[in-house]
């Protein structure tokens, strides 16, 4: 692969490859650090994917290990809030040594999906299967119009 020096105007004899390599390494450092922090603090982030079809918007959230009673869905106008809660209680008790220890942790995460139309609570459906939460939001905004763009042929 050749140098990118020819992509710059005259007087810019810069080779940006070292800078790009440095930025890639910085991205790797931050990505790896983030993964280690998630493990260290026992965080289980969840990912959300949004797909749009002609008639609906499909929201899918990956929630492995969570049960239905740990998930809350809330519609706020044109926003969908997905909240996941997790609590763990660990108790140790030893009558011989008169030792008792109790540890509790609570974690709450949420994602907010904003759409360009008001979400109908009545027509929106959700299901949870094999750790995948699927939410179907029908499009009901018939006032949406798309404008055509003319091509400027004068140039």
Automatic annotation (TrEMBL):
CDD domains: ACD_sHsps-like. SUPFAM superfamilies: HSP20-like chaperones (SSF49764). This is SHSP domain-containing protein. InterPro entries: A-crystallin/Hsp20_dom, HSP20-like_chaperone, Small_HSP. Belongs to the small heat shock protein (HSP20) family. It comes from the Bacteria. It holds the Pfam family HSP20. Residues 37-152 form the SHSP domain.
